[in-house]
Write a structure and sequence with these properties.
The complex is a heterodimer of chains A (239) and B (422). Chain A starts with a strand and ends with a helix. Chain A has one domain: P-loop containing nucleotide triphosphate hydrolases (Rossmann fold), CATH 3.40.50. Chain A is globular, with a radius of gyration of 18 Å. Helices cover 43% and strands 23% of the residues of chain A. Chain A is an alpha/beta fold and 239 residues long. Chain A has ten helices and nine strands. Chain B is built from 13 helices and 15 strands. In chain B, the strands form three sheets. In chain B, strands 1, 3, 4, 7, 8, 9, 10, 11, 12, 14 and 15 form an eleven-stranded mixed beta sheet that branches. A two-stranded antiparallel ribbon of chain B has the order 2-13. Classes of the chains: A alpha/beta (239), B alpha+beta (422). Chains A and B meet through helix 1, helix 2 and helix 3 of A and helix 1 and helix 11 of B.
Chain lengths: 239, 422
């Protein structure tokens, strides 16, 4: 059996002086899996992604990402792990406004020698190839300012950026919520195809349950997060 | 490192408008500072170049700076004179190679008149040993001949053989109380020297005596103008006094003993100064004002640097999202820090470079004008050590100042994590 890409055990997390947001006994993503994590807004999705990406640390429990125990790593080591092995796509406004389309795609290579190496000697060519696979091959379009691109185009640029240099894990946080249904399905199809091709794992988070069939596995955050259940029970009891 | 540098550059280009304004603010402050510095060093250089080859200047006892100012720079006036026999005694000393006596006190339309001997044109040297040379004509020969400096000729439009009259004292206007009855003929025009010589009318010592015939009481005798020129020429026109004496020595080694001998002269009290030493004393006096000026312009640079800080700090809020994106794509906190420090450093560096270019351009264009109008000399030439030092200091200070917004952004990006907030 392959080593899990994400392996979470008994983690608990609360923001300073706030109520507990996450209390997850177990959650794992195996290599090559494309997992759909469903959760309504405010369910702690972004917090969970922050924990997995290593910018937050849980108060208790353990998170292993690619075999590394995140809570045992120093913040700089966690940063390095993310830089080398994790690609991130946000809901919107993914791009650095002062960089070109390819400049944005190449951004992770500036911070990670490992991904620079994986992207090969012709990094720009690799960026253009990824963009083309995601349906962005118009040379004119590549020259435009990123703020002039449509939201759908921006998200595909962000996907190419997450994919460059073959990271082992892609985290996507509601990347399709600003897209219409057609663009959304096409985006997910293209992303899945590229993820499958590179052999990476995908953790795709959305509130939209109708997307679940497009992934190899779907998980409901409410089902694995006990903090959420307790909060709902309290609310139910009060009603 | 270089990856961040190009990132900083791209980020600045993206905010061209406000960045250019900040760069201009820094550039103006740097240009002001360098302008003050160059005017200062130019003045020093100009003063230092005014006299050379003269070992001692002798006059009646006064302040050494005062003696230097009135004898060489035609500023202020003498309170007492040196008698002719005393002058002859000094000229006859064995250790003295040459002497040039000068007599001051009259003027011509705002330009000082100096009575001297023809030796002046041979022994007076400026700018590290250059001799005076004639653009036109020759030294004065006749009693009523005059040699004028280049600026006098240019400003007043005089040519050879122009007839001029002198006025008594230093008043600018010829108001009747002058020597208008004793016209001089211009026989020589000197080449420009960049020294007070350019602004001087030179006549013979005898001429000074001649035009003061009838002035023995200190004011003009009403009958003075009735004395015919032929009669004056027949008088003994040996001067009774001179204002100061330029002295060249046989051997430089005796300069201190000679000075001591003159200073302790029995009979008429005298004062001998070494020009370079008196100049150093003058710098001591002016350095307080110079330092104040430099301090003020240094503060202006500080204001320029603060404008860098302001522009970056105000941009931080709208760039919060950008920082999160950078973090998500693998930037570590120190990358965020360096990015902003580099931006500040680049703005400071570009501002300083622009400021240096600006002041050198301005000096190249305006220096001749300033020199002609106000006699302010700027040190010209390619950017030198001072410019490099200012460039280095401003860049370093910008980098340090950039650390303030950089730390803020770094801390914020740690708190924000990956959740991009609007």
């Amino acid at each position: 059996m392959s080593r899990p890409v994400i392996d979470i055990r008994d983690i608990a997390f609360a923001w300073k002086q706030g109520p507990q947001v996450l209390d997850i006994p177990a959650f794992r993503v195996d290599a090559g899996e494309r997992v759909f994590l469903r959760g309504p807004s405010g369910s702690g999705k972004s917090t969970l992604l922050g924990l997995i990406a290593g910018v937050l640390a849980p108060q208790s429990g353990s998170i292993h990402v690619l075999g590394e125990d995140m809570s045992a790593l120093s913040p700089p080591r966690r940063d390095r792990l993310r830089a080398d092995h994790v690609g991130v796509i946000f809901q919107m406004f993914n791009l650095v406004p002062y960089l070109s389309v390819t400049g944005n795609v190449l951004l992770p290579l500036r911070f990670s020698p490992a991904r620079r190496k994986a992207a090969g000697s012709d990094a720009e060519g690799e960026a253009r190839r990824l963009l083309a696979r995601l349906g962005l091959e118009d040379a004119q379009m590549l020259k435009r300012r990123v703020s002039d691109l449509s939201v759908g185009q921006q998200q595909r640029v962000a996907a190419a950026r997450a994919l460059i240099g073959a990271p082992k894990l892609i985290i996507a946080d509601e990347p399709t919520s600003a897209l219409d249904a057609d663009a959304r399905d096409r985006f997910i199809a293209l992303l899945s195809e590229e993820v499958a091709r590179t052999g990476a794992s995908l953790l795709f988070v959305s509130h939209d349950a109708s997307l679940a069939p497009l992934f190899t596995r779907a998980v409901d955050l409410a089902a694995i997060n006990r903090a959420m259940n307790r909060a709902m029970n309290r609310a139910g009891a009060a009603a | 490192m270089s990856a961040l540098f190009s990132l900083a550059w791209a980020s600045l280009l993206n905010r061209k408008g406000s960045v250019i304004l900040t760069i201009v603010a820094v550039a103006l402050s740097v240009a002001l500072f360098l302008g003050v510095e160059k005017a200062r060093s130019g003045a020093r250089e100009g003063f230092g170049n005014t006299i050379s080859g003269t070992d001692l200047i002798v006059g009646a006892p006064t302040g050494s700076v005062n003696l230097l100012l009135y004898s060489v720079f035609r500023m202020g006036g003498a309170t007492a004179e040196v008698s002719w026999p005393t002058y002859q005694k000094i000229a006859a000393r064995e250790d003295v190679a040459w002497t040039v006596p000068i007599a001051l006190g009259d003027s011509h339309r705002g330009y000082r008149v100096m009575g001297t001997s023809p030796d002046y044109f041979e022994h007076y040297k400026f700018g590290g040993g250059q001799q005076l040379s004639f653009a036109q004509g020759k030294p004065f020969d006749d009693l009523f001949d005059a040699v004028i400096g280049s600026e006098v000729a240019r400003e007043l439009g005089y040519t050879l053989d122009t007839s001029v009259t002198l006025s008594h004292g230093l008043g600018a206007a010829d108001l009747g109380s002058g020597h208008e009855n004793r016209p001089f003929r211009i026989t020589g025009i000197l080449k420009p020297t960049g020294t007070p010589v350019d602004r001087t009318v030179h006549v013979s010592l005898e001429a000074i005596t001649a035009i003061h015939v009838g002035w023995e009481s200190g004011a003009k005798n009403p009958l003075a103008d009735t004395i015919p020129e032929e009669m004056i020429r027949s008088f003994d026109l040996t001067p009774k006094t001179v204002t100061a004496i330029f002295v060249g020595l046989e051997r430089k080694g005796t300069i201190l003993t000679t000075r001591r001998a003159i200073n302790t002269n029995r009979g008429e009290p005298l004062m001998a100064i070494i020009p370079g030493e008196a100049l150093a004393e003058l710098w001591n006096v002016t350095s307080v004002a110079e330092r104040a000026l430099l301090a003020v312009s240094a503060f202006v640079i500080a204001v320029g640097l603060v404008s860098i800080l302001t522009s970056i700090l105000t941009s931080l809020n709208e760039r919060r999202r950008e920082m999160s994106i950078l973090r998500a794509t693998g930037a570590r906190p120190h990358h965020i820090f360096l990015l902003l420090v580099f931006e500040a450093g680049l703005v400071g560096f570009l501002g300083a470079v622009l400021g240096i270019v600006l002041i050198h351009g301005l000096i190249a264009v305006l220096a001749p004008l300033l020199q002609a109008q106000y006699g302010v000399a700027f040190s010209m030439g390619a950017p030198g050590l001072v410019d490099l030092a200012v460039l280095g200091a401003v860049t370093a200070a910008s980098l340090v100042i950039g650390a303030i917004p950089a730390l803020t952004a770094m801390r914020r990006s740690l708190a924000d994590g990956l959740s991009v907030r609007l």
